[in-house]
Amino acid sequence: MKADGTYTVPISGLKxxxxxxxxxxxxxxxxxxxxxxxxxxxxxxPVVSEVLPVDGDRYVPVSQGFLRFxxxxxxxxxxxxxxxxxxxIGSGSGSGVGEGDISVPISGLxxxxxxxxxxxxxxxxxxxxxxxxxxxxPLMVFDPFAEGWExxxxxxxxxxMVADDLEYFPVLLDIxxxxxKDKAQEDGxxxxxxxxxxxxxRVYHELEExxxxxxxxxxxxxxxxxxxxxxxxxxxxxxxxxxxxQQCPEKTWDxxxxxxxxxxxxTDSTIEDSTFNNYKGTKIASNEPAExxxxxxxxxxxxxxxxxxxxxxxxxxxxxxxxxxxxxIDVTAGDYWFLVNGDIHSNLLSGxxxxxxxxNKLGILIGNGAEPDYFMKLRGTDAVDIxxxxxxxxxxxSYDGTTLKLAIxxxxxxxxxxxxGTEAQPSNNLIFGRCVDNYPYNLNGQLDExxxxxxxxxxxxxxxxxxxxxxxxxxxxxxxxxTHP
Length: 485
Description:
With 485 residues, the chain is mainly β. It has helices at 178-183, 249-252, 459-470, 472-475, and strands at 19-27, 32-40, 47-52, 66-72, 79-86, 92-97, 100-105, 114-122, 127-135, 141-142, 151-157, 166-176, 192-194, 200-201, 205-211, 216-226, 232-238, 257-267, 270-273, 281-283, 290-293, 298-303, 309-310, 321-329, 336-340, 352-357, 361-366, 376-378, 384-385, 393-399, 404-408, 414-416, 431-432, 444-453, 476-478, 482-483.
């Protein structure tokens, strides 16, 4: 134990113009106090910004011919810089330069290769060192049989299950295949999709699950053009023991998807978002909730006591939005909040929240900062039914700036255009399985395939999603194996 007084902790290695956070925990053996503080260091060293390729970009074309960054010195001093790359694709240096953009030529990039580049700058007194990285995109147009793949199967999408032509639609492929079990890599790295036979264009995909011991494959494939009048075909290639990992999860989901959670475990205490945004969720504890088999692949099972998943961002946007998920309720008479990013006391004050309540209803509220009023709501007779506690059902809500819709299983939506006030900024981060504050109402049920978009998805898009996930064997057919000639 320490007495009252002032205490000093040595620190070092501070960088110019950087924000630092420090945490203090104090206990007298009975009570504990925790505090968080931040500070920003003064701007004295040169600043490197506006880098191209963007740091961490994993889909840079091999034709990229330069590295670019902006240099600025807080005291307007002249600067000297060097740029190095690894593996080597170019380098550069300069001296006596003022604020401005710097370009360094590069060449010889190879597909699916990670490159790092190192920028060192000084104004003669204060140095700055930065490290950036990028990865080049995979080969896009080629004949897989000429690149080491041995087998393929044609995948056909039944056009009668698609109500309207759709672009860049993520198609689910959920199969158990003995040929994949026997001939694909154990981890599925060589699984590849193309938009045609022979020389064709790669189709981006994400592997949600591949079990090499059984041949079980759960994959999402971004089909650039899905027709409602003729069947759409693509090809699944496999059997290349020398292949690197071919999946591109972030490219599988269009840029309007803010988050896509397949609800399988990344670890026993986290779930991952498949989009570029990487909104990772953290469980209250290991296996709370627990991963189980769900509607598509794995899902999360909430026990109704204390299970929930927390995020460090609100995620659900203000304004135009679409939110969809599969839900199976264990007790249909229960009152649960299960997908919320706002303040809740006896009612929702801000943000967006989904909840179930007696008698067997599911509603949505969007807060306006006042209680008990709402910006928009679908509840009571305007809510949708929860038909049973036996099956998963697909729910979606959308808001286009005028109309709020809520529907189950891609059916006719409940609709409202009534507004009160303005939509309030979410006051909390997103949470699955319960609400915040003193009214937890913990979910007793399972959640699967949660998606959040910043646009109002067309009902035909929602219908195709529902048909694909609920009637997979009617939506997709898989042809016989074709062998490298």
